[in-house]
Specification:
CATH architecture of the largest domain: 2-Layer Sandwich
Distance between the termini: 154 Å
Shape: rod-shaped
CATH superfamily of the largest domain: Ribosomal protein S6/Translation elongation factor EF1B
Number of domains: 2
CATH class of the largest domain: Alpha Beta
Strand content: 15-25%
Oligomer: single chain
Number of helices: 4
CATH topology of the largest domain: Alpha-Beta Plaits
Radius of gyration: 48 Å
Structural class: alpha+beta
Largest sheet: 6 strands, antiparallel
Order of helices and strands: HHEEEHEEEH
Length: about 220
């Protein structure tokens, strides 16, 4: 075999080895690329899902924030605690600022409802028509909800040239009830009564006497 043939054979073997290595390595790399593409597609899909959820959550978060603000405003109008003293002071201040005289301010018993309680307050004020109208207008502008009902006006009276009337009404405010506050306590069970001693009857006495005679016999 000539040297030329040997060289050709060696070159052919080298080419075959290189070609086999290239094909095998290419397949391995291609598999790695395919797996990487698959992972990239999965991560892209997850990212798109996260973005979609974020887009949905943003308006929900804004709505929750708005609801929290509205809840705070509602709590100011319908507080959880009574705060009757503060309301009475406010009513007195409003009456004085309106040029009225308060003759009666009497809080009555609460009227429980589903989740809140009504707190009626009897009011008796005295002054001019215009002053009374101003007083009720100021009450309507309070942050706390106060409803006026059962309004009764007396006949006008001339007081040193000034026409005055007396007004009686019910100013009803409200408050939240704590959980379980509306529950009615169960009545206490009566204490157990001691057993009464048995009172012997005439028939029992006769039976005892007969038993005694039998024993003697």
């Amino acid at each position: 075999m000539s040297n030329t043939v040997k060289i050709v054979i060696i070159l052919a073997l080298v080419v075959l080895v290189f070609l086999a290595y290239f094909i095998f390595g290419f397949r391995v790399k291609q598999n790695e690329i395919d797996q990487a593409d698959k992972q990239l597609a999965e991560l892209t899909a997850q990212l798109n899902q996260v973005k979609a959820v974020a887009q949905v959550l943003q308006p929900i978060e804004r709505e929750i924030e708005t609801l929290n603000q509205q809840l705070g405003q509602s709590l100011a109008q319908l507080p959880e605690k009574k705060q009757i003293e503060a309301l009475l002071i406010s009513l007195d201040d409003l009456a004085s600022a309106s040029g009225l005289e308060i003759n009666k301010v009497t809080p009555n018993a609460e009227v429980p409802r589903d989740f809140y309680a009504e707190i009626p307050i009897e009011l008796e004020i005295k002054g001019g028509y215009h002053n009374i109208a101003i007083f009720f207008d100021k009450i309507s502008k309070l942050k706390r909800v106060v409803n006026i009902s059962n309004l009764k006006l007396s006949s006008p009276v001339d007081n040193n040239g000034e026409i005055q009337i007396s007004a009686n009404c019910i100013a009803t405010t409200f408050r939240f009830l704590a959980p379980g506050e509306t529950a009615v306590a169960a009545p206490a069970a009566p204490p157990p009564q001691a057993a009464k001693p048995k009172t012997p009857s005439p028939g029992d006495d006769m039976l005892e006497k007969q038993e005694a005679k039998k024993k003697k016999l």
